[in-house]
C-alpha cells in the first residue's frame, strides 16, 4: 500500500503514516455516536418498561405494583426527571397536600432539588394548587412523575367566609350555611389581608401595596391590571374577592405640587411632569382639568387616568 501511495501521490513515509492516523481518527468519530446511541437505548427501554408496568399494575396485584415502584426508585436514583445523576433517595409515597409542602417532604416523594425549587418559586409568586391536576402544570414535573403522585394528592376543601360592611353579622351568616366569600377592601388592606385572597401570595401582595402607595390609592379594582404579575387570568381569579373605597384617595394639589412629589406618580413620564410645572409657571394656576388639555403631550387617556387624583384648589 505504501508503494502504491508513493507511486500515485508521491507521499513521503511520514506523510503516509500521517494519512493512516487521520483515517483511523475519522473512523472513530463516525462510530462513537453509533456506540453511544446503542447504550442509551437500554435506558430508554428501561423507562418505557417501567411506564408500561405502572399502567398494567393499576389493575393488578400489590406485588407487581411494589416491584414497579422499586424499579422506579432504582432508575430515579440513577437519573432524575431532568436526566441528571443524583444520589440515591429512598422514595416514600404517602398522602400529601402540595400547597406549601416542606422541601423534605417533596424529597421523600422522590422529587429533585431543582423540581422543588420550581414549585416553591411558583408558590412565592402567588401560585397555589386547588386541584390535583394543577401539579401537572409545573414544567419540571414529568408526566410519569405526575401519574405516580396523583393518587396520593389530597387537597382539602377550603371553607369560604363572607364579610361586607352591609353585613354586620358575618359569623351568623356563616353558621346559617350560606355560600359566601370574604371581600377585601384594597385601600385599607395590609399584606396579611391581601394574602387571604385566593390568587395573591406574599410577593404579589407586596407589589400591590407598593403600587397603591405610588398612586395614592386605588379608585377602581381594574387598576390592579397595572401591577406587574397580574395578567388577565390572575385578575379574573381575584377580582370577585376585592372592592375599593375611593373616598380616601391621596390627592395631588396641582397648583403647588413640585417635581419631587410628582415623580413617583406612575401615570406621568418625566417630560409630562415637567410640562405641567412649566405651563403653570408661564400661564398661571390651573382652574380645571380642561386647562391641562392645552398641554400637547397630555392625551385624553392620560387625563382620564389622572383626573380623579387632582385638586385644583389652592
UniProtKB/TrEMBL annotation:
Listed GO MF terms: DNA binding
Keyword field: DNA-binding, Membrane, Transmembrane, Transmembrane helix
Keyword Cytoplasm: no
Alphabetical GO biological process terms: protein secretion by the type II secretion system
Membrane-spanning parts: 18-36
Protein's UniProt keywords contain DNA-binding: yes
GO CC aspect terms: type II protein secretion system complex
Alphabetical list of Pfam families matching this protein: HHH_3
Protein's name according to its UniProt entry: DNA uptake protein ComE-like DNA-binding protein
Species of origin: Arcticibacter pallidicorallinus
Classification lineage: Bacteria, Pseudomonadati, Bacteroidota, Sphingobacteriia, Sphingobacteriales
Amino acid at each position: 500500500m505504501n508503494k502504491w501511495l508513493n507511486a500515485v501521490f508521491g507521499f513521503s513515509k511520514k506523510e503516509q503514516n500521517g494519512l493512516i492516523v487521520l483515517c483511523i481518527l475519522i473512523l472513530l468519530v463516525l462510530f462513537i455516536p453509533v456506540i453511544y446511541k446503542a447504550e442509551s437505548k437500554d435506558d430508554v427501554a428501561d423507562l418505557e418498561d417501567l411506564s408500561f408496568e405502572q399502567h398494567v399494575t393499576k389493575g393488578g396485584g400489590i406485588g407487581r405494583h411494589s416491584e414497579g415502584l422499586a424499579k422506579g426508585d432504582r432508575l430515579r436514583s440513577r437519573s432524575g426527571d431532568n436526566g441528571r445523576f443524583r444520589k440515591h433517595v429512598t422514595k416514600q409515597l404517602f398522602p400529601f397536600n402540595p400547597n406549601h409542602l416542606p422541601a423534605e417532604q417533596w424529597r421523600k416523594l422522590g422529587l429533585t432539588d431543582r423540581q422543588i425549587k420550581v414549585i416553591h418559586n411558583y408558590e412565592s409568586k402567588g401560585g397555589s394548587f386547588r386541584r390535583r391536576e394543577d401539579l401537572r402544570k409545573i414544567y419540571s414535573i414529568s408526566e410519569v412523575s405526575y401519574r405516580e403522585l396523583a393518587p396520593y394528592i389530597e387537597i382539602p376543601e377550603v371553607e369560604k367566609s363572607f364579610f361586607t360592611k352591609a353585613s354586620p353579622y358575618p359569623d351568623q351568616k356563616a353558621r346559617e350555611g350560606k355560600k359566601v366569600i370574604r371581600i377585601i377592601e384594597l385601600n385599607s388592606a395590609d399584606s396579611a389581608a391581601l394574602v387571604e385572597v385566593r390568587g395573591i401570595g406574599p410577593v404579589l401582595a407586596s407589589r400591590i401595596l407598593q403600587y397603591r402607595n405610588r398612586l395614592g390609592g386605588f379608585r377602581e379594582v381594574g387598576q390592579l391590571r397595572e401591577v406587574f404579575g397580574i395578567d388577565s387570568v390572575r385578575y379574573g381569579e381575584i377580582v370577585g374577592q376585592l372592592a375599593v373605597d375611593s373616598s380616601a384617595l391621596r390627592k395631588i394639589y396641582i397648583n403647588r405640587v413640585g417635581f419631587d412629589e410628582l415623580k413617583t406618580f406612575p401615570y406621568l413620564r418625566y417630560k409630562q411632569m415637567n410640562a405641567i410645572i412649566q405651563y403653570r409657571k408661564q400661564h398661571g394656576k390651573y382652574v380645571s382639568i380642561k386647562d391641562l388639555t392645552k398641554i400637547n403631550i397630555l392625551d385624553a387617556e392620560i387625563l382620564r387616568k389622572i383626573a380623579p387624583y387632582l385638586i385644583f384648589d389652592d
